[in-house]
Design brief:
By secondary structure, this protein is α+β, with helices and mostly antiparallel strands. It is built from two helices and two strands; from the N terminus they run H-E-E-H. The chain has one domain.
Length: 51
Amino acid sequence: MRGHEAQETHLRKLRQLGILGLRNDGKMAYYSLRDRFAAELATHAVRKAAA
């Protein structure tokens, strides 16, 4: 599986699980975290990486 295809597959699975939300605006796709735990985990990971 190529990089772009792998990304699409992972994003689709996360949407199906209800973790990600998707909003299309023309050619742009905007993803959001819908699961509170996943959002808190991502926030914590970003803060740790920045420290």
